[in-house]
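Tutorial handout. Part one gives the primary structure; part two gives the three-dimensional structure as tokens.
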Amino acid sequence: MIYSVNGTLTHMEPGVAVVECGGVGFKCFTSMNTQRTLPQIGAKAKLFTVLNVREDAMDLFGFATQSELSCFKMLTAVSGVGPKVGLAILSELTPEQVAASVATGDSKTLTRASGVGPKLAQRICLELKDRVRDLGAAAGKAMPSAGTASASSHAAAAVDALSVLGYSPSDAAAVVARFDSALPVEELIRLSLRTIDTGKRGS
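Part two.
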């Protein structure tokens, strides 16, 4: 409904940023990672947003990047993960770290976030990994396993991780293939996201 807000940053407190656009101040709940990227009060700021509608409230969540927004949407689609937990995870981990954890089955890393215990972390990994497999199946492509520590498995895990962030397996594979598959998974994800973002700005 509201794709983004782009205006003047007028207020900020832990977990909240207010961006004024056309005389209207939009209160956005944010992650600490997003808040670290925001400018000083009075400067221009842009947040990518998603509106969460409940019976008793309508809450707007804002993020510095589309990747973080996509990661938030994927996390909150997992049973037992609400917006509060989604923000807690993205306050502790970057989207790249979340995606890499899911792709490699590293549920322990997710427990670093407040409110995320071992069982919930395992559920997040399992449910999102299943969605990645479903994406691959829908595209007529079998997703490669990331269960070994080989260079090819790094690339496979990076493709899985980008799929977690909302990119199609075919597009993700094409971008990851540009880089050395011996690089760490998180580095492959970071380089791929930078390439994708650069391509979007140039188009």
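Part three, for discussion. The longest strand covers residues 4-13. The chain has a mean pLDDT of 85.
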